[in-house]
Structures are given as structure tokens and as C-alpha cells.
Amino acid sequence: MDLPNLTTSGEDTAVNALPAGAPTEYRQRIASLRAISSLINVSSDPATVLDHIVFAVCQHTRWSASSIMALNRTAGLSELIARCDPHVTDLAGLSTRWNLLRSPALRVAETRAPVVIADAQVDAAFPDYREDAIARDYHTVVILPMHATDSLGRDMVFSVNARTRIEVDEDELDLLLTISHLASVAVQRGKSLAAERQTAERLQRAREINISLLERVLAGSTTAKVTEIVASMLPHAVVLFDGIADEFHVGGSPNPARINDREWALLVKGAASSQLLELSQSQGASEFKKCQVLHIQGEDATLELKTFVEPLIVDGHTVGALFLFSREAALDDLELLIAQEAKFALCVQLMRAYVQLHGKANAIAEFFDELLGGNWSSDPQIVRRAGRLGIDLTRPSQLLAFQQSGSAPDDADYLQQKLVNGLHAVNRDAVVSWQGDACLILIPLSAKVGSGDGEMLVARVRQLVKSITGADPALAVGPVCREPKDYAPAWEGCVQLLRLAKLFGRSGTLHAGDFGAFSLLVSALGDSSLEAYVEQTLSPIDEYDSAHGTELLRSAEVFIEEGCRYQSASEALGVHVSTLRYRLGRLNDALNVDVGCPDVRFSLWLAMRLRHMKKRAG
């Protein structure tokens, strides 16, 4: 231990500064206090401060030895953490820890009052002290409380002992209590300065790492590497969800004692992934100030984790989430700063991927505009262009399409990438592109694919779209395309199926034959024209029935369905034949709808059939 020497000139100055009439003993005590205060404040390191305290007491008081002990209540021990005993050169074999229940240290710490042992070698109240006193040859002992804790947060007590038996009067006790107080102040000051240094060092390190992190992001580092750097910046377990790539990047385990890093990574990417995704989608930004307890079921037990979740937002769209798993319910100021800087860097990282995604989506959309519009000069030319985008037009491919309500969503590019990520589990070469308000899905097929395989493929795509969009889609199934010229009519067929599905309120898988001749009507007239036709044909009869309490439309419908046979129609309606004739006559008289006319009958039948198809679908 490197301890500073104190010159006698300081003591002389201290003594001479006192009033001339002060007693010599009093003047000496004041000088001792000044010298001790100077010595224990030389260093700010807590451990060094403790060594200086015990050294200063031995040098500047009449006590021959001094020590400081910490109370380890968990282990039930009083443990020596600093000692100065110039008269004992060989400390080997001497005890440095004692039973706390038999030690006066516990009483001193709890009562905050000193304990004086007049002669430790003969006092039977504290047998451990008696044993130590005999081994080190000391007699009088004073144990005093310290108003400070050690680096582990344990209470400390300060003790002095003398090699002879001495009288401890009130003045001596006041001197020792003052020394203990000075020591406590020095320890607390040292701890504060050490904490400030540590904070400054952490802040500097965080700045350096943050600069390095941004440099790596701007230099094009992978998301996995960037996440690794973020994990090194924070004392908490880190998990990043990259929504663009649809994958988790996992740092260390939040509780290594219960689950190791490998098991934790498998849990996050497997069984817990849905729970984490649901949590990330339900959270708004709180800048890491909102903590919630998350229960994650592991293989052997449930993990209870304090969790901070922050969405990562680019261009108004949530493209990922950053999870911090902490031991505490709140981050300290420095951790909060580092976490916010890390969030910014990760947003920049995902923004790069988002921009690339947007550019690729636009390029693919432009290509399909050309392909589906038939605007290419030759098959080799369009095949080569497709190849540059990773699309193989030389393979037979299944064309599918679905449509969300309204126009294409604002986050179409992000949704497109989520679909691509999911479809890659079905087929690595699948392509997705928005064409207006419809989403095109192109899945290259194996030459050996059968009809059963095709149906299974369509069912998996439908389930995937449902899981991503949150609604069962109307999924149009087009024909298999084998040449560039096949794509335009196949796409037109898919769009036609989507129009019919919208007209009739249908969802689920749609094929060309599902709507029969109505597909020709929609193609010729358009869905809005058909809706207007139904309205114009049937609304007047609906309004008349509603106003007069009649069933003219129902009677006409059953009459037409029964092949215009009065007897069978009246039986189906449960009325007399004359009643049916009266109703049909009233329909003609009041609304000029003559069911005897073949054209009128067909017009009514078509309108009612269209209405019923839409109701059944709904």
C-alpha cells in the first residue's frame, strides 16, 4: 500500500493556529484531526480511502491498530476490508472474518452507538474478539459506526485497539467519533467521484461506440452486425425484429442462470416469436420509459422478464422493433441515452433496407406493367429483362391475385416484402407486385407439379395472405403461364374474377368457372352497370311491397322459378291460385311489370339471380 507521508510542519501549523491558552492535549487532538483529514482525502478511490483511514489513525492517535469491517448479513459474517497494525508483521493465519451474531459490529451498526471493550483479552462477552486480541496482543478496543457503505452496499464499522489497557473518556470517544465521521464523508465522497468517473467513462465509450455504429450503418454493415454492436452498448439483453427481412436478431440471454444464449435465441425465433410480434405491433413509442412484464414460456419454466419495446419507424411505417430485457423496471439516464441512440441507428439501418425495397418494388411493378400490357419488342428481350430482376419467364408459373378494399395500401412496399418473405417458405422464386389496387403473385412451378400440388399451393398462399392482411382475401387463381404472351390474358382473367368477387361479396379461392355466364356479363357491362341494373329492376317492386305490405316480388319470383305454372307456384307460396293471379295482375297494373311477357320474366329472373348470388356470398 502506497501511503503518503505527512510532514510535521503541518502539525506545527495546526497547533500554532489554536488559541494560546488551549490545553496541550486538546491542541494535539485537533492537530491529529487535521492530519487525519488531510491524509484520508488524498485519494478518491474508495478502497484506497479505506487504507488511508486506518493508516492515518495509527499514525496520528495513541491507538496502535485500526481496522474497518463490513457486515455481510447474507453470509452472517463480519468481514475485514482494511487494517493497519504496525506491530504485527506476520498476518498469515489470523482470521479476517467472524461470526456476525457473536460480533459487536452488528450491535454497533444497528444501534449507531459505539461499543468499548476495556480489555478484550479477558472480556467474555465477545469470544471472537478475545481470541483475536490474544493472537495479536491488544487490550482496549473501541468499535464505532460509520455512516457509509462499501462498494457492495454493506454497512461498515470502524474499530481501534491499543496494546495496553487505556481509559476511554468522553473526549477520546468524541475524537474517535469525529474520525469515523470524517472517514464516512471521505468514503461517500470517493464513491460519488468513482460513480461520476464511471459514468463519464461509460458516456465516452457510448459516444465512441455510437460513432462506430453509425459509421458501420452508413458503410453498409449487415443488420446482424449492427445488432451485435447495439448489444455491446447496453447492459441488457437485446432483441431486434427486422420486419423487412422478417427475422429476429438475438443478443445474449436475459437470464443466463435459467436459459443460455443458444436456447434463448431458439426460443425467440421459435415459440416466442408470435408473442413478441404481437407485443411490438400493439406498442406505441415511449422512448424506453414504459416497462412491462412479459411472461415467455420456455421448455422447462416460464420466464418473467421486464421488457422495454420500441417500434422502429421509417417513413411513417413500422418496419421493426427493438426489445430490451432489463433487471430493473426503469433505465438510468445514461442507459436511456444509449438506448435512444441505438434506436436511431437501427432506424437508419432499416431505412436503407426500406429504400432498397422501395426501389426494387418499383422496378418489378414497371416490368409487369410492360409484360401485362404486351409492350415488349420480342420474347428474348422481355425474358432477359425479367432475368435481371430475378424472374424466370422460361419456367411455367402459377399466376394469382388478391385485392384489398379500396386502393393499394399506403405501405404496399412493406406489405409486398412481408408477402415475399412468407412466400419464400413456399417457393424461393416467388414474386409479388402491386398492379393498381390488385396484388399479383407469381409462383414458378416444378415441371412435375400435379393438380393436387397446385391446390395445396393455392391454399398455403391464401392462408399466408390472411395471416398478413388480417382478412380472408378473395384470391383469384389464373391459368399456368408458360410463355410471355400468356401473362396478359391470365392477368385479365384474374382481374375479372376479383371484380366479380367484389360485386357478389365473395372471398376465398376463385376460379374462372365459379361465376359461369356472369363473368361474360361483367366483362361486357361492368360491375357498376350490373349493380345499377339490379337496383332499377327490383327497387320499385321492393318499395311497393314495403309501402303496402304485399309480397308481389316474392310471388313473381316463385312463379318464374316454377316455370310459370300457377298451380305449383301457388302451392309453393301456400296461397290459392286465384290469390296468385290477383298478385301478378296487381304487379302489372301498379308497376307495369307483366310476367306474361318473356322479356320481362328474363329481366326479373336475372336481377333476382344477381341479388341472390351477392346475398349468399355475403
UniProtKB/TrEMBL annotation:
Superkingdom in the source lineage: Bacteria
Residues annotated as domain PucR C-terminal helix-turn-helix: 552-610
CdaR GGDEF-like domain span: 375-499
One Pfam family it belongs to: HTH_30
Similarity-based family: Belongs to the CdaR family.
Protein name, UniProt field: Sugar diacid utilization regulator
Organism expressing this protein natively: Mycoplana dimorpha
Taxonomic lineage: Bacteria, Pseudomonadati, Pseudomonadota, Alphaproteobacteria, Hyphomicrobiales
